[in-house]
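User: My advisor asked me to double-check a structure prediction for Secondary thiamine-phosphate synthase enzyme before group meeting. I don't want to rely on an old file, so could you generate it fresh from this sequence?
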Amino acid sequence: MSVETREISVTAKEDCGIVDITGIVSEEVEKSEIKNGTVTVFCVGSTGAISTMEFESNLSKDISEILDKLIPLNEDYHHHKTWGDFNGGSHLRSFLLGPSLTVPFVEKKLTLGTWQQIVYINFDRIEKVRKIVLQIIGDL
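Assistant: Sure, here is a fresh prediction for Secondary thiamine-phosphate synthase enzyme from the sequence you gave:
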């Protein structure tokens, strides 16, 4: 069993900017020495999330709209009293979706469905460059 840890950077627009990172994750798995195993994709930060979806513009709009209904960004959250940065809703959205995802791979190929992509979502109120950690674990 071997472990390789890598970092990538992703830039996403504010307020639910969604970026398809499937290609980058796939390239890093292919470059690794590990043939079969899992890759954990972890967003460093508390206002972003990692998930899977069919990455297309209308679904991206649907996700943004449903999150606006569930966790509106312009509510007066208690968190705003702590730092005054008015991103309490951003933190709640990140908490709901979560910072990581683990995907198995076989023969260096991610085992994703045809319409399933790995995405990073920025919930913060400003555009962000975010560090994403990939931990690749498996057999050589």
